[in-house]
Amino acid sequence: MYQVLFKRLPGNEEIQLPVRMSELAAGFDLHAAVAEPVSLSPGERKLIPTGFCMAMPSDLEAQIRPRSGLAYKHGITCLNSPGTIDADYRGEVKVLLINLGQETFTIERGERIAQMVFQTVPSITIGEVDELPETIRGAGGFGHTGV
Ligand SMILES: O=c1ccn([C@H]2C[C@H](O)[C@@H](COP(=O)(O)OP(=O)(O)OP(=O)(O)O)O2)c(=O)[nH]1
Ligand SMILES: [Mg+2]
């Protein structure tokens, strides 16, 4: 079990912290901490504040992913999906939304705009070599095995 710490930013006392909407939901929904409703016209992108900063164990990352309902109904998605929250980031978590739909979409204060999924990050070191270990696939890719 991991513990993730959240710190609300001033003025966001009534904005819910990330919340799971069902017992086994993978994603914690993120709420918009916009001061007033924010409109996204078709094709427009905006960085939406969540009103909190966080700290998680060093072997975790958090991914910011779209909500499928907003994507399906309104064309609202995360431009940089999945967004990456690094374990050492202490700034406000923000969500980069884009409107790929055909109508203007308005984000209300407190609305659930995206979801955050936690993942473990393996410990990696980088090694440089002249030759890589051989494989049967070799350099074949991009449809090399057929459809
Ligand atoms: O959707 C996102 C993506 C990133 N971040 C924050 C947390 C993350 O740790 C930091 C940096 O993100 P990223 O590495 O994706 O951006 P970068 O363009 O490489 O910026 P940097 O040079 O700060 O790493 O920005 C968010 O709040 N929301
Ligand atoms: Mg980066």
UniProtKB/TrEMBL annotation:
What biological process terms from GO does the record include? dUMP biosynthetic process; dUTP catabolic process
UniProt keywords (A-Z) are:
Hydrolase, Magnesium, Metal-binding, Nucleotide metabolism
Q: Give the residues the record marks as binding substrate.
A: R67, S68, G69, N80, T84, I85, D86
Q: Which Pfam families match?
A: dUTPase
Ranges in coiled-coil conformation: none
The record's comment on protein family reads:
Belongs to the dUTPase family.
Known role? This enzyme is involved in nucleotide metabolism: it produces dUMP, the immediate precursor of thymidine nucleotides and it decreases the intracellular concentration of dUTP so that uracil cannot be incorporated into DNA.
Please identify the protein, giving its name as recorded.
Deoxyuridine 5'-triphosphate nucleotidohydrolase
> What organism does the UniProt record list as the source?
Paenibacillus baekrokdamisoli
